[in-house]
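pinging the channel bc i need a second pair of eyes. not urgent but kinda urgent?? the chain im working w is below, pasted from the shared doc
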Amino acid sequence: MAKTVVAAGRRLAPLPSWLAAVALFLLMVMTFCDVILRSAFNSPIAAATELTRIFMAIIVFAALPVISARGGHIAVDLLDGLFRGQAERLRNVVIDIVSGALLIWPAQQCFKLAGRARDYGDLTEYLGIPQFYIEYFIAIATSITVVVLILRGLVELVTPLAMRHSETVYKSAD
């Protein structure tokens, strides 16, 4: 059972990255077309701002769980010198679990706002796209990030030091 879950997770893991990449590509094409239409024909894409907001939300929130799982967030190392060995491991556990726990409230609020937008029938200004679609996407992506961060902290807590990959493992793979 556990192997099946892990295998499914590995197959699904690239999907958010691909979604973010497609959204970025579409944003790039739309911006290019908007500039050409604006400059050459004085006729910009009317919904460009609306589409930019939607694509940016997709890019950011599709990438959030992936970046969190990889530990790729920007980190300031002001106190790294104070933590070595077990203390460093415990610090990382606390940071991951607390970060995941702190994201629970924003995820809940996103679900509430998405439900409210659905109930009110809120639509985007130019294209008339129901706003709750993107709001539910944000809520779900934030919820996945909560799970990823908490699991990351728990795995760090229970994984023996010998089982963890050191930086030399990553360097040798390059």
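so The chain has one domain: 2-173. and DSSP finds seven helices and no strands in the chain. — does that match what u expected or am i reading it wrong
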